[in-house]
């Protein structure tokens, strides 16, 4: 009988020890249930300190524990920004798409469309940094092209948005980078004497990206391709275009080089909910 009592006592002590452990764990503030506004204030203070990983935890607490609360939609929009600043472009893009799908009439919906385009743009930022390195003609810039399309859609939907200047800045940059990629591939084809292929790339830039910084370079590629193919009438037309639009340039130049512009990578925050 005493043995049974001892076992029961040991069991009760073990349960008591577990309760003490769980109580101690909750004392650090990580698992204690907190009011929605407190989570939001914690998230804001962490973002001000650039502690985006911990800010994401607080914002996700709001979304999961208070899905219909006062700060739930605001937290979802700020998750787009926090993921982006934390370097997780995939999560930021996914959060933007989710917000667009769930809150199409929200006051911050323009921000979601804007950030959807920005995150596709930054997905290719490592490519942009290596733009003039080898095998460029084989690199995939589908992310940059999708970003260009999504930012263009954003400007069509929200031309008066406060984020429009940021989008315009990135569109100019993307336009020039896409054109530069196409023409680097065209020059590669010229080296291989694939003049029809080089013509297609250069004409694509002139016809579809007319306001890029690469127009003159595209014209020189057309010039070389027509000359090598023996299309003398078309060559004369290109020479006239260069003479009229670029009077200070030589009619024959092997290559035009341009410097890639820098662009601010930091994204703006969404508008905050009034207290």
What does this structure look like?
There is one protein chain. This protein is mainly alpha-helical. 68% of the residues lie in helices and 0% in strands. The chain has twelve helices and no strands. Helix 3 packs antiparallel against helix 4.
The count of DSSP E runs of length 2 or more, i.e. the number of strands, is 0
Residue share in helix = 55-70%
| Gap from first CA to last CA | 65 Å
Number of helices: 12
The average pLDDT value, as a whole number, equals 81
- Strand composition percent: under 5%
Using the alpha-carbon principal axes, give the shape.
elongated
| Major sheet summary line | none
Unreliable stretches: 5-29, 126-137, 254-261
Order of helix and strand elements from N to C terminus: HHHHHHHHHHHH
Which structural class matches the secondary elements? mainly alpha
How many whole angstroms does the radius of gyration measure? 29 Å
Considering the chains and any ligands shown, give keywords for the structure:
mainly alpha, 275 residues, 68% helix
Secondary-structure blueprint of this entry?
Blueprint: H1 2-26, H2 36-48, H3 52-65, H4 72-85, H5 89-102, H6 109-123, H7 125-129, H8 142-157, H9 164-191, H10 195-208, H11 215-229, H12 232-245
Give the gist of this structure.
The protein is mainly alpha-helical and 275 residues long.
């Amino acid at each position: 009988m005493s043995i049974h009592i001892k076992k029961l006592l040991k069991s009760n002590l073990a349960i008591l020890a577990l309760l003490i452990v769980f109580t101690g764990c909750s004392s650090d503030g990580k698992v204690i249930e907190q009011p929605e506004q407190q989570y939001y204030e914690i998230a804001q203070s962490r973002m001000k300190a650039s502690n985006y990983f911990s800010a994401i935890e607080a914002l996700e607490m709001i979304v999961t524990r208070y899905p219909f609360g006062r700060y739930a939609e605001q937290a979802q929009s700020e998750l787009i920004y926090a993921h982006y600043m934390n370097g997780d472009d995939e999560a930021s893009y996914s959060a933007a798409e989710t917000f667009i799908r769930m809150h199409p009439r929200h006051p911050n919906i323009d921000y979601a469309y804007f950030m959807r385009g920005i995150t596709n743009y930054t997905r290719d930022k490592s490519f942009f940094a290596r733009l003039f390195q080898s095998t460029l003609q084989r690199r995939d810039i589908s992310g940059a092209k999708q970003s260009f399309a999504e930012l263009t859609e954003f400007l069509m939907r929200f031309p008066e948005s406060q984020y429009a200047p940021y989008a315009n800045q990135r569109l100019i940059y993307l336009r020039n980078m896409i054109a530069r990629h196409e023409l680097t591939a065209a020059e590669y084809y010229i080296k291989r004497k694939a003049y029809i292929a080089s013509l297609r790339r250069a004409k694509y830039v002139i016809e579809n990206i007319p306001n890029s910084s690469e127009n003159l370079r595209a014209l020189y590629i057309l010039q070389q391709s027509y000359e090598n193919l023996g299309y003398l009438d078309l060559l004369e037309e290109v020479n006239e275009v260069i003479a009229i639009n670029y009077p200070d340039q030589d009619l024959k130049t092997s290559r035009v080089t341009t410097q890639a512009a820098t662009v601010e990578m930091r994204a703006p925050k969404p508008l905050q909910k009034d207290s």
